[in-house]
Design goal:
393 residues; alpha/beta; TIM Barrel; eight-stranded mixed beta sheet; 13 helices; 40% helix; globular
């Protein structure tokens, strides 16, 4: 891999992480600015503007000829997308368990587009237009190899993979599943009413989504998988040596625990049975009530908790009841770190490691300076290696 020095070691740590058997320090996603571009930064984590930032960091001094002219240029031109990413890689260092991987998702939930939605592209977001008014008038949800969005997206991903070669990973697109796909097709408010008024129809449609998901997943995975047969996954910056996916149900924040078990749990179980590695994305306070049902699924290997758009990061002690259940169920943690300054990050991560150990934790950190990256790794190697943790099941 051109832009990653310790790729083999990184792959070994990820493989162990999925099985809660990581050795040494915890996994850490650390992407740093090269010293020569540091003067372009204010020396602090930089979220930048929506026009500049993607999931790995900030574009610094992007050549004028590479700046996108429109939304086709930004999202759908493989040569231009790859050229911009190479520029990013040349100006950053992928330390610890970070690795160069190019996101090729056209929004989270593109299965909805393959089933009939239109995609809307904007500078800072991608969305899917609802496309049905009544389920009885809408055909069964089936794999359509001629769908315009699927054909273009698959061709785009294959071309990106060809241009990338072995220089960096090309991510698996964020396809989405279960009720979240139906919500894009129908609209969230109408779908919530459907759950009450026509539950049998929704259960049947979820089964259709379950079946069609892997028709699309398999074709994309065949296109992006590496020599190990594994793949990386979008903004979550994770890799596994087999069929990997991030699963979720954002709509679960609007339904009861009983409804989740009735409509969603079995759908997720079926997906995990066809995957080798699964990270579950638990999004928002309204979804916490489903944690017990999720921990019952043996096929979920790790959980990522998103508190919301504002507030403390994933190291906040308020989230320990969530993490207690995850570690107690024998699964791993994916934790985003951003609250406070650099010294706060170290102190907050230290609390997590001392409680939960170093064997099952992945820390996702903001872009930082090269010197900060070296300091953090040295601290982790010295203080966080093979920590069993004080938490007991």
């Amino acid at each position: 891999m051109k832009y990653k020095e310790n790729w083999q070691e990184t792959k070994e740590k990820f493989t162990n992480y999925w099985h809660q058997k990581n050795t040494g320090r915890p996994l850490m996603r650390i992407i740093t600015r090269k010293p020569e571009i540091e003067p372009l930064s204010d020396g602090k984590p930089h979220e930048g503007s929506n026009a500049e930032v993607f999931c790995q960091g900030l574009y610094y001094d992007l050549p004028e000829e590479l700046k996108w002219k429109d939304m086709v240029d930004k999202y759908r031109d493989p040569e231009r997308v790859v050229a911009r990413y190479r520029d990013f890689c040349e100006k950053h260092v992928f330390m610890a368990e970070s690795f160069p991987n190019l996101e090729v998702a056209w929004g989270p939930g593109s299965v909805a587009a393959y089933l009939g939605s239109e995609i809307g592209f904007k500078e800072d977001t991608v969305w899917f237009e609802p496309c049905l008014e009544e389920w009885e008038d809408f055909p069964a949800l089936t794999y359509d190899p001629e769908n315009k969005w699927f054909k273009e997206h698959l061709a785009f991903v294959r071309k990106v993979k060809e241009l990338a070669g072995e220089d960096f990973e090309v991510d698996m697109p964020d396809l989405m599943e279960n009720i979240d796909v139906l919500s894009s097709l129908r609209g969230a408010q109408d779908l919530m009413m459907d759950l009450l008024e026509d539950p049998d129809e929704i259960i049947d449609r979820i089964r259709q989504v379950d079946d069609v998901y892997f028709e699309y997943y398999d074709r994309f995975q065949d296109s992006v998988k590496d020599a190990d047969g594994g793949n990386s996954w979008s903004c979550f910056q994770i890799w596994a040596p087999g069929r990997l996916a991030k699963l979720q149900c954002d709509a679960s924040g609007m339904i009861s625990a009983d409804f989740f078990r009735e409509f969603v749990q079995e759908s997720l179980r079926k997906q995990t049975e066809k995957l080798d590695y699964v990270l579950y994305h638990l999004d928002g306070p309204g979804a916490i009530k489903h944690l017990d049902a999720l921990m019952e699924l043996d096929g979920i290997n790790a959980l990522q908790w998103t508190p919301g758009d504002a507030g403390p990061d994933g190291t906040c002690p308020d989230w320990d009841p969530i993490y207690d259940k995850v570690i107690g169920a024998g699964k791993s943690l994916w934790i985003k770190v951003y609250s406070g300054e650099f010294e706060d990050w170290i102190r907050n991560m230290d609390r997590i490691v001392q409680k939960y150990g170093s064997h099952s934790v992945f820390f996702f950190l903001p872009e930082m300076s090269y010197e900060q990256g070296k300091t953090l790794i040295e601290y982790a190697e010295k203080n966080w290696s093979d920590i069993p943790g004080t938490f007991t099941r």
